[in-house]
Structures are given as C-alpha cells and as structure tokens.
Amino acid sequence: MIVFAAFMPHTPLLLESIGKENRRKLKKTLEAVRRVGEGLRQAAPDAVMVISAHPTRHADAFSISVHDPYRADLSRFGDLGTEASFQPDLRLIDGIQRRLRRDGLPLTLDTDPALDHGASVPLLALFAGGPAPKVVAVTYSGLDAKDHAAFGRALRDAIEAANERVAVIASGDLSHALDDRSPVPAVPEGKAFDDAVQRAVAGLSLSQLLSLDPRDVRAAEECAYRPLLILFGILDKIAAAPHVLAYEAPFGVGYLTADFTL
Fold this sequence. Notes:
The protein is α/β, with parallel strands linked by helices.
C-alpha cells in the first residue's frame, strides 16, 4: 500500500557538501524538505520509490534499475567524498515488472550501479544521518504525457497488490529559464510553466498537467513535468490532500516542494 507521497527538487545545492554558502538562499526549500523527511519517517515505509531521471533513460520505455546495491554518484558536481549506498527492493521490483509487462506497458530493467543526482539528492537529503528503507529507482521515458499518467496508474495498482508499505518521492526541478540568473536564456514560458505546475499541485489536478501544451513545456527547460505526471497517475483516484510546502527560485531555477496527505 502507498503510505506517503511527495514531490521535491533534486538540486545538489540542497546538500551541504555541494551547496555550502548557497544553502542560505534555500531556507524555504530546506525547511520544506525537512518536513517531508519528518513525514516520511512517521509513515514508516518498507520501501521508497524514487521517480526521476537516472543515468539510463529510454525514448520509448520506462525503466527501473535493479543494481544491488545502488550507489549515490555526485561526481559531476565535484563531490567525490560523499559515499552512500542503498539497497534495492528486488521483490517489489519483480512484482511491478511482472504486472506492467502483463498489462503491455513498455518497461525495461537496467543495471546502472550509480544513481545520479535525480535520485541521489532526494535520498541523501531525506535520510541524512539515518538508515534508509529499500529503494525502487524509477526513470521516466520520452513517451507522451498521457503515457506517463497511465504508467503511474499501473505503478499504483502494482504497489497496492504488494504486501509492503511504500512511499513515493517524485523529484525534479521546474523551469531553468526564469530570469537573468537562469542557466539558459529566460523565456515567458518559464514562469508560465512554474505557475501552472503550482496550481496543478495545489489542486492535485492531473487534468491541468495534461492540458499543458508540449511546446510550452519544452520551452520552459524543466525536468519535473514527467515525474509529476507519474506521481499524479499514482495518486489518481486516491484520497489525498496536497500541501505546497515551498516554492522559490533564487538561482533562476524553480524549486517546488509538496507533500500529499493520504
């Protein structure tokens, strides 16, 4: 059963080893992440499913990594000292892949030894200084928005069929094209995307996410849309109360944190 759900950024600046003095500008997000971690611990899950980008991503299939163990990898950000490993929930992964293949959904199993920052940052931020439950690392695909929502619904059915308490953490950063501090040139679609996503999350509205024009989503230069679609597919028809805990963009990239009371 699903016992907890949340969405959070995966900027490495959340981690002290990388963010250093920049963390002072992320106080709202850091407090929101602390609250997500507190709720996660109270939910006492047997496993946590992390939905984000990972080293292997396929154009026409979703992916789950089955490497044992997973290893956090922050080397692209100059952090060679952080060492952390996480155990995969192989039994849950097997149950998921069997159900999804039976339903004809495109899924591959990959064996990447490292989790990039899309999964490493949430796991390190949420379980700093404490043991983590087993992990299921899910990667989105290049398929369209409706396919991602359908994949989320199928994940929900597979999780509900398992005899485990499962927390779901979707992770991504919103627009990277908001203003002159952004890593890419600002465009009007950047702020429009962030505003639309905040409204959709506040209302837990999958239909609002699906109504976004794909051209506007691409122009926003984001990496949050497809993880959110999967998360909202998982939560579709589940009684959940959304709480937007923080939104800020001190470096020209939108960081949104939210949880969902089940």
